[in-house]
Amino acid sequence: MKKLLVFIILILAYACSTYKGLPPLATDNGWKTKIIPPHPQQEEGNPEAGYEYLVYGNYVGSGLPYGIAKKQFGKNPKNVLNREGINASINYQATVFPAKNGLMVANGNCFTCHAGPLNGQVVLGMGNSFSDFRSNFGLFAQLAGFGMSLKYGKKSLEWEAFEDLNHYLKASGKHIKTNQPGANPAAVLAEAIVRHRNPEDLTYVEEPYYEMPKYTIATDVPPLWNVKKKNALYYTAVGRGDFTKLLFQASYLGIEDSTAARQAVENFKDVVAWMKQIEPPKYPYPIDQELAEAGQTIFEEHCSGCHGTYGENETYPNKVVSLDVVKTDPYYASYAVQAPIVEWYNKSWFATSSPRSYFEPEAGYIAPPLDGIWATAPYLHNGSVPTIEDLLNSKQRPKFWERSGRTSDYDAKKVGWNYTVKKNKKGKWTYDTTLPSYSNVGHYFGDKLTEEERKKVIEYLKTL
Ligand code: HEC
Ligand code: HEC
Q: Which of 49, 87, 302, 393 is most buried, by the most CB atoms less than 10 A from its CB?
């Protein structure tokens, strides 16, 4: 009996320790919604230069020698960006550029996560919901450094061009392993990296400023065509102030220090200008206009208060909705309000030099603009709901759902991914809503509508 008790306690202790690092959940916030006011932005960017910089630029600073990267990212590259020169030979998700010592290196670019495959095309600015961060990057991160030192030695130009990346690969590798297909750990990646940077000059420090949580919370990837309407970035509206500095995310991985950062940020003015003029793809199938018009009236009555209006009289309120009201999975927002990166960021070069950006998380989620919403399945910040029809009828949301992984497997009727309901989480592309931070609860605003009204609203959403 005693042995059994000890056994049970050990099991419980193990179970608890597995979940250590998940935040206590925010309950009564004391507020329902908040409007985020605009912050002055630098307006003088050039969109063409911004695009050039995104696809050719050296904003990641450091990388793998071109020859090695070509083997990794260069197999049958589809030159979907129509890039010229050496970059035509590598996949669109990577860029070849000169490192600070002049050696040609390659690294991932913004389109690793911000270009989405859809119906056989790659849509720039759309979130990539087909990435899979479940494999062990920790091991790869360790092996990359070891392999590089064996092949080239630590006194080589190759090592010098790779060293910054190596630091941050080691710092982040094991923290970005997720337990869900499609989920993107970019927020955790940033957090794991900056704790090894001196906030004042961004140089590498061996000793981290804070500990990382043991459980990796990952999210969907929002489309970039919404940035032009937003006064704050990210799902929790944590990103405030100057957008050029906030957009700097991929560069955390390899940039050397704040001098290099200052140069890159200059170019990000152009990137912001590019982002502000991209538009979502148009719905490619027939739309019943009469039904859609009826849907617009219902939408404006029930949904516009949070999501704004579309068409001739465009409005967007920039409204953050408290967890108490939206009731969607609370882990990500609960974590954001206590994440140590907030303090780091607000005393760093990003917040103390002009133009200033800063972090101010909320225990809630921003109601996003719904432009091009037909194309951006799965839905909610954690990507837990496969179609708009399921989002607007919470009883219909599947607990385990499997998509084929084919990017053309689109359901024009329910609007979102085709899927099969599963009994358990088996299957490469099966989403498991029972895992912490991936539940499909909340956003019950569509439940109040009748079946007919929902049909009309869905038809209207196809037009946005
Ligand atoms: C590893 C994947 C990844 C890479 C690389 C990446 N991002 Fe992101 N990005 C994300 C994810 C995930 C989010 C959502 C995070 C959140 O909202 O909390 C995001 C959010 C954003 C947002 C905010 C959008 C909104 O509606 O609030 C912008 C803007 C953005 N990224 C731009 C960039 C740029 C520019 C680059 C390249 C310098 C880049 N990202 C590189 C994954 C990535
Ligand atoms: C009280 C404010 C509020 C109302 C009313 C509301 N929403 Fe939302 N909506 C939100 C918030 C906040 C989110 C983001 C929640 C999250 O990601 O966890 C959201 C998310 C969504 C999404 C998913 C967006 C994405 O990119 O994944 C869709 C689609 C949507 N809402 C449609 C509607 C429709 C249609 C209505 C009216 C029937 C409606 N909403 C009413 C606040 C609201």
A: 87
Ligand closest to 108 (CA) is: 1
Q: What is the pLDDT of residues 400-446, one digit of tens each?
A: 999 998 888 999 899 999 999 999 999 999 999 999 999 999 999 99
**Residue 226 CA to chain centroid, in angstroms?**
13
Q: At CA 180, angle to CA 376 and CA 93, rounded to 5?
A: 55
Instruction: In whole angstroms, give the CA distance from residue 105 to residue 91.
Output: 14
Say yes or no: CB of residue 377 within 6 Å of ligand 2. no
250 lines ligand 1 (CB under 6 A): yes
Tokens 């940035």 sit on residue: 227
Structure tokens at 236: 């929790």
90 within 8 A of 69, measured Cβ to Cβ: yes
Nearest atom within ligand 1 for CA of residue 219: 12
List all residues 6 or more positions away from 154 whose beta carbon is below 8 Å from its beta carbon: none
Q: If you take atom 11 of ligand 1, which residue's CA is the nearest one? A: 221
Query: Which of 128, 143, 150, 206 lies closest to 174 in space, CA to CA?
Result: 143
Q: Give tens-digit pLDDT for 328-378.
A: 999 999 999 989 999 999 999 999 999 999 999 999 999 999 999 999 999
CB-CB contact of 336 with 238 (8 Å): yes
